[in-house]
Amino acid sequence: MNIREKREAWEKDFLNPFAARSAESIGRKSNEEKCEIRTEYQRDKDRITHSKAFRRLMHKTQVFIAPEGDHYRTRLTHTMEVVQIARTITRALNLNEDLAEAIALGHDLGHTPFGHTGEDALNQLLEDGFRHNEQSVRVVEYIEKNGNGLNLTFEVLDGILNHRTQNSPLTLEGKIVQISDKIAYMNHDVDDAIRAKILAPDDLPKHFIDILGDTPSNRIGFFVSNLVKNSIPDEKKITLSTEITAVMSDLRSFMFKNVYVNGLHFKERSKIDKMLHLLFEHYLINPHKLPAEYKARMEESPTHAVADYIAGMTDRFALKQFGQIFMPSAWGM
Question: Which of 180, 254, 268, 277 has the maximum number of C-beta atoms within 10 A of its C-beta?
């Protein structure tokens, strides 16, 4: 029995009966010889972590565009916070930690530069719209490795595709990542908004602080504890309590009203929107300026080929391309 087989046997004997076991995975689109050391979900973690799309997350906006300071979250630090929250919850519920980690690592690979501002811009430009969860699947299936994709397991692809609130992942581990994403972004967005002086510490309504705590770690700890206490894996139930679900919804509404559509932030959003529209139109008219891997997809769908290229850009690369294309050479970035 090799190392992988020992791990698979451990999963069978000790994980919750409703956990997703790697040996029972539906599999990959293209069959591969199994690794002697790593389970299928462990291999997926490695493939995502070593991908180019994952590395680019460090230079992609989470919420705040071009912040001055080193402590604001980027898309990469957000991803790692989701990973750690999901692992804590999954371990506490005796579910498959490797699967949850793989889903969390890959859930935002398709996010655009400049966060949801970039996503909104591409959503306007594509006839069938643009959704970052679907783009994340597109990245791992068709874009990475020069168009060959990462050939991930069905369960990881399902978790990535369905991590948004309105969707329903098939595995309990996928459901945990879905909620962990919300726990992470709502709490670190509050922290970053206070750092950016968009919010003052006492701007948070008192009942949020009284219930959830007065620091980011206390709030995250409260949400995690509540989720673990109220989830029943044997009934396929992964949930916060009814009261705390309502509190989370209220906090999200508060953040939209006071942070996400803040006047200063909105002003920067309009600039980014215009910039991405211009870049999109430029590459659509000048497909010969696309890298070869994207140029090859123009026959299939010109708009999607251009959207793939722009969605994969980091913030600074998009700014550099815009400067080189539209600014006089003396002013180009």
Answer: 180
